Amino acid sequence: FTVQKEPTLLARVNNAYLYKKDIKLVLPETYTKEDSILLVNNYINNWATNQLLTDQAKINLPQSQLKKFTKLIEDYKKQLYTEAYKDVLISKQLDTLVTTQEIEAYYDNNKQNFKLNQDLIKLRYIYFANSNIHQEKLEKAFKNYKEEDVAYLKHESLKYISYSLDDSLWISKKTIAEKIPPLSSKTIDEKLKKGKYLQLEDSLGVFLIKINDIRRVNETAPLTYVVPTVKQIILNKRKLEFSKKLEKEIREDALKNKKFEIY
Questions:
Q1: Which of 7, 24, 120, 169 is most buried by a 10 A CB count?
Q2: How far apart are CA 139 and CA 133, in angstroms?
């Protein structure tokens, strides 16, 4: 038969013991010998301090308070077990597919809950150096923006300092000010108008900007912008409904099998 090796004891405080196997759980995956000694010593000291304080608390705190803490600990332990178990069942059984129709229906029925707290803008821009010899051609293609123009602008993209040609995405005003410094927070409101074309310069180069659309603060957020939020709301509702159904089924099954009785 195999002889079980006694666990290595590191410290004791009254009737509580700390073993080497407990320490392994807190050590990082990669560490030097010096680091491990420091970490272990700190852990032992912290463990001992907490244990001593806990023991003193159990002796000196009123019994009524200790009973309250004991109940809180038991309730929290039950909650951890039940939530972990429900999460396992939910991850296995919950339908996480949210259709476009579901998202659109929820959005249409709850538009009042999707008011913007910041301006959103759709735009495209390119930012190239002052020395770019194709500036006029770039400007013409950027303004016309037909299929062949888009192809040309994308072909030249390696020569840009930065750019974004997808003007179907909603971007916050703050993000735009960060990406396009000439649009400072002081001037951005007067310059950003729907359909407006802008040509701005800084010390490094030239920005060509075309505003496609704007949504202002307190207007309804566009659906494309809130799709992730709506999807998460729908999933959370499903989880809540699944959880309630699960709890009901567990109670009914326990009643049926005489595991749960109400007197």
A1: 120
A2: 12
